[in-house]
Amino acid sequence: MSSPALQTRTRVTRIAQEAVDKARLTVVPRVRTRAPRVPFVTLVSAVLVAGIVGLLLFNTSMQQASFSASSLEKEADTLAARQQTLRMELDELRDPQRLAQQAQQMGMVIPPAPVFLDLETGKTIGVRTPATPENAIRLDPPPPPKPKILQPDPTVVQVPATASTASTKTTGQQGNQQGKKNRDR
Amino acid sequence: MRRPVPSSRLRPGASRGAPLLRLRVGFVLIAMVLSFFGARLVQLQGVDPRSYAAMAAAEGAVKIPLLAERGDILDRNGVPLADSIQGKMVIADPSLTAAQAPAIARLLSDALSIDYFKALTALKGRKEGSRFEYIARRVPSTLASDTLKAIDAAGYDGVSLQDDPIRDYPAGDVAANLLGYMGTDEPLGGFERTFDKQLAGVDGQATWQSNSRKGVRIPLRDSTIKAAQDGKPLTLTIDRDLQWFVQKVLAQSVDQYRAESGAAAVLDTRTGEVLALADYPTFDANRPSEAKKDDLGSRAMNDAYEPGSVEKVLTASSLIDAGKAFPRQRFKVPPNLARQDRVIGDWFDHGDIRLTLAGIIAKSSNIGTVLAADAFTPPELVDYLKRFGLGQRTDIGVRGESSGLLTTGDAMTSQTKDRVAFGQSLSVNVMQMAAAVNTVANGGIRVSPSIIAGSAVTDDGVTVGTDTATRTRVVSKKAARGTAKMMEKVVDPEDGVAPGAQVPGYLVAGKTGTAQRVVDGVYDGSTSVSFGGFAPADDPRFTVYVVIHRPMVDGGGGSITGPVFSRIMGYVLGRYGVEPTNGKPSRLPVEW
Q1: For this UniProt entry, which segments traverse the membrane (chain A) (predicted)?
Q2: Chain B window 465-494: which residues touch A at a Cβ cutoff of 8 Å?
Q3: Which of B86, B168, B557 sits opposite A80 (nearest CB)?
Q4: Which of A69, A95, A185 sits opposite B171 (nearest CB)?
């Protein structure tokens, strides 16, 4: 309370007041400022709640990010796989065998010897040899041999020779290849 | 205070009045429980803490193997001959699929083009209580995931996918004999196996904690990623399109002459790089199981055979280099030549004829070659042949290469020497012979052939490739040029035996060969016909060597392999833009 302060004011006129005042000790009043509690509690609670909610949100968003990372990774994998599949298809389209088949179907053949055309002079270099269908190369392997049951041995029937009929033979289809004369070694 | 209930006082042995006893019993109980806890603590922390820690970590841990991508095998232009793509294996858990097996099997067999009944057996489980069955392996990733989506959509459970990389050979059988092929998990042949260390790479692993079935990561928990190290690509000196062409031309001729097999090699004369090395019969590297086992390797490298008259080129150039013969040297060639143990004859009937050395080569006279080679002792001839590379492996990096057979000089009798001089009684592989002919083309300097661009280390620890190619002079430039001039006469329509080997517009030098084949230790009457040569003859750029084994149609090196040579040479000259040189053809006389 403020009573000691009032007392000192009343004794202002005393002699040697200063010395007296120095010698005397008085109790300093306890100053109590009562701060309003509500804002503080509110603030602390708000910080607490905000922290917890923030942590929760942060956690949730991290989890969310983890999910989306997973799904994006999966998508990247799928796209990479798609890209590789497409590359494989492209490589198959570039297969020389396929190109040759298409070219040969269009009537193109690989020439037996190259001829060069000089664009400046318009002259050809090399011997101009016509490319003919014979220059076409065989692109597909020969068909596998048929099983025996589909290609039986030719049946040979010996008919006793009579005056009217000559001996006849029935033969199956057989490819025969002309052997070339062995003229060189 | 309430008065105690009278009934409790009546109960005998009621301990309510003995707090001390209750306290003791309580303490004993607590002590027992605590001692259990203590024992458990000692067990967990004292006996084997690590295994428990590991078990705790494994709980909810997801381990994903990160597969290293296998390195591509590329041709000289960077075109892939073998490449790896992501694939999946389709697996089933029969405990979940057995009930709807037929329906799932139909779906799978339609989508993946696999056998319905095999799929059905797998889905039902091959064994009682099985939880894991393969349905299909190496399915392209996109197809596999599309199929899985369809199965999920249809409401079936128990089918899943796992990574399973696919090795794809886009050009099928092109260079298959060299590349080799992959088995289920490991390489089984060819470069795939020889250079596996380089191609394979190292698998990695990703580990993280997850609490869901889909394996979604828990953030801020342990997660480690050891990235996979992809394999390094292997670049060959092979030219894919040329290789394809050579294979097709070779296959056509082998089939046309109903031969057993054939091989062809194309070399860049100056660098010794192998541009093509073809074998027939061959196989599709994507389907090695469908091929015969014998066709899977490289016959060109692994089988040795007697080269026949192409070898005369080496004898002749050695003789010229040693100063013991010259192209215009004159020989009297009798109809047959009686040597110690047997009579040597020529392939064509003739009386006494007068041929120059050039004529002997052009007409491929055995008798003439033997007479010319009389100037050599066996060690002298063998020494030259060794320097040409015969009798030792070329070590280009192909597995199981045969070294061929060449009797050592001091062990060689004069009869053997006579036969070796015209290409019998010694054996070679295709690359040895191609490199030997290439030596003559390259002005007498032998460039060791190479099929790997740069360098690579084989599984035997040998470094191979263009970086390690060596150059050694075998015969003088003059001897090589002289021999080339003589070889031009071989394709001469008037004087030679192989006009079919000509390439219109170009000067071609070559030599035919028709050798008797050794089968099970005896000459069985079958032949190996071959042709080796180079063009343009006055400035050689490419060497082509072709051999066809056991043709069933009568013919020799000129008529059977000559046209094959011509076709390949014409193509390679055009492909690499080599213009005709307009040089003067050889005017060496063949007779006198």
Answers
A1: 38-58
A2: none
A3: B86
A4: A95
Please judge whether B256 and A94 are an interchain contact, meaning their C-beta atoms are less than 8 angstroms apart: no
Q: What distances in angstroms separate CA A83 from CA A77, A78, B35, B428, B448, one per listed residue?
A: 10, 9, 64, 46, 41
Instruction: Mark which residues 159-188 of B lie under 8 Å from A by CB.
Output: 168, 170-172, 174
Terminal-to-terminal C-alpha distance of chain B: 153
The Cα A33–Cα A36 span in angstroms is 9
Domains (range + CATH), chain B: 64-122+130-203+210-235 (3.90.1310.10), 240-575 (3.40.710.10)
What CA–CA distance (Å, rounded) separates B33 from B23? 15
Q: Quote the DSSP letter at residue B93.
A: -
DSSP code string of B396-454: SS-TT----B---GGG--HHHHHHHHTT-S-BB-HHHHHHHHHHHHTTTEEEPPB-BSS
Three-class secondary structure of residue B324 per DSSP: coil
Three-state DSSP at B135 gives strand
Please tell me the distance from the alpha carbon of residue B468 to that of residue B447, in angstroms, as a whole number.
Answer: 11
The stretch A68-81 carries a mean pLDDT of 87
Contact B540, B442 (CB under 8 A): yes
Using CA atoms, how far apart are residues B426 and B307, in angstroms rounded to an integer? Answer: 8
A-B CB pairs within 8 A amount to 159
Length of chain A: 185
**Alpha carbon B477 to chain centroid, angstroms:** 35
For residue A164, pLDDT beyond 80: no
The ipTM value here is: 0.77
Pairwise CB contact (< 8 Å): A126 & B172: no
Nearest Cα residue to B428 out of B402, B397, B400 = B402
| Interchain contact A123–B (C-beta under 8 A) | no
Backbone φ, ψ for residue B377 (5° rounding): -85, 160
Is the bond leading into B281 cis (omega within 30 degrees of zero)?
yes
Mean per-residue pLDDT for B42-50?
A: 83
Amino acid found at A175: G
Residues in chain B, how many?
Answer: 592
pLDDT in tens, B298-325: 999 999 999 999 999 999 999 999 999 9
CB-nearest to A88 from B168, B308, B567 is: B168
The answer to whether B527 contacts chain A (CB < 8 Å) is: no
- Going by their DSSP bridges, the two strands B522-535 and B542-549 should be labelled as antiparallel
Instruction: Look at residue A2 in the predicted model and tell me its pLDDT.
Output: 45
Asked if A94 has any chain B CB less than 8 Å from its own CB, the reply is: yes
Residue type present at position B188: L
In b/e form, how buried is each residue of A114-124, taking b as 16+ CB within 10 angstroms?
A: bbeeeeeeeee
What is the enclosing helix (H) or strand (E) of B74?
strand B73-74
Phi and psi angles of residue B203, each rounded to the nearest 5 degrees, phi first: -70, 150
Phi, psi of B238 (to 5 degrees): -65, 140
Using a 10 angstrom Cβ sphere, with 0-12 exposed, 13-18 middle and 19 or more buried, the burial of residue B132 is exposed
Cβ-based contacts of A65 with chain B (< 8 Å): 219
At A42 the pLDDT is 92
* pTM, entire model: 0.80
Reported as a single tens digit per residue, the pLDDT across B117-171 is 988 888 888 888 888 888 888 888 888 888 989 989 988 888 888 888 888 898 8
